[in-house]
């Protein structure tokens, strides 16, 4: 059996969601980790083929011809995803494969000019970019499989925010402030 072998690659253009890459979140064990989900268009045959080849190589190197019965791989089909609570499909995952990627260490997040992004308004669920990921085997009593680690991210372009996020500019774009002008004048007189 191989030990702790990893493989690293850059994806094609993906969409990011459930982003916790600038600030960590606590996992189920109480440890901080940086995470996000990457949505890979099914039309991106190059990225999907590269992922499958790397995963197949790791499986063969680690388990040979005896892959465990409850094996879990990193790549999931978004067309097959159904929310357990609502019973509905996620429209953002349709037509995509997806992977959850994570790291114990803060990944580098840069823009297309390779300038660091430190502000969460600059990198959010819904933007597009490239991800550098590595694949590794996990093999413990409860679970066996291959997972994807997150090394770094390059944001290429903005997209519609996922999860209901919006800006003040969007929230108040249709507000007519003229109806409040008299109220402001009255307040000045009182103070």
Automatic annotation (TrEMBL):
Composition bias, Acidic residues: 177-191
Entry superkingdom: Bacteria
Spans annotated as Disordered: 161-191
Stated name of the protein: DUF2815 family protein
Pfam families attached to this UniProt entry: Enc34_ssDNA-bd
The organism of origin for this protein: [Eubacterium] hominis
